[in-house]
Recover the amino acids of this structure.
């Protein structure tokens, strides 16, 4: 792919995202129809909920494939990658904030905000994988430093969250 321009590579990545969206839509429609027309769905709601979680994890993993290629293409352009690295630091800073609000804000924070924080924390392993890939393909010193900060923040927050979960 070295002979193809980075703009053409971005188009291929866009096609990859479109393909993943199409596959996800078909999978979600199939799951919806299965739950809608299965007479046993009401009796085994927990099993269907677990199936929904597994499907969501699978779809998130599918989205990681074109994202890895997008990161790889962006790593060649210093301006894009530096801005992306700054965005990663901002996203990683939301993890400790969400952990703090979720853990200490039981009586002081609304349920919707706590749910949003929980969703952010549940997505942390996927974000961590994206940050690791970003660090591996980083070429420029400033971008490497910023992505390393993001990796440190996200990794430490995930470690503290797991420790709090185990400790109770």
């Amino acid at each position: 792919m070295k002979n193809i321009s980075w703009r053409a590579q971005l188009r291929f990545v866009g096609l990859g995202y479109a393909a993943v969206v199409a596959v996800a839509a078909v999978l979600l429609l199939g799951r919806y129809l299965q739950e809608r027309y299965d007479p046993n769905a009401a009796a085994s709601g927990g099993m269907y909920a677990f199936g929904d979680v597994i499907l969501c994890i699978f779809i998130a993993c599918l989205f990681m494939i074109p994202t890895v290629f997008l990161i790889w293409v962006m790593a060649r352009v210093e301006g894009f990658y530096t801005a992306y690295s700054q965005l990663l630091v901002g996203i990683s800073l939301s993890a400790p904030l969400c952990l703090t609000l979720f853990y200490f804000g039981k009586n002081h924070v609304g349920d919707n905000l706590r749910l949003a924080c929980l969703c952010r924390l549940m997505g942390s392993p996927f974000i961590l994988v994206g940050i690791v890939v970003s660090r591996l393909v980083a070429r420029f010193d400033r971008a490497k430093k910023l992505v390393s900060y993001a990796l440190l923040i996200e990794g430490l927050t995930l470690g503290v969250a797991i420790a709090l979960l185990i400790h109770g």
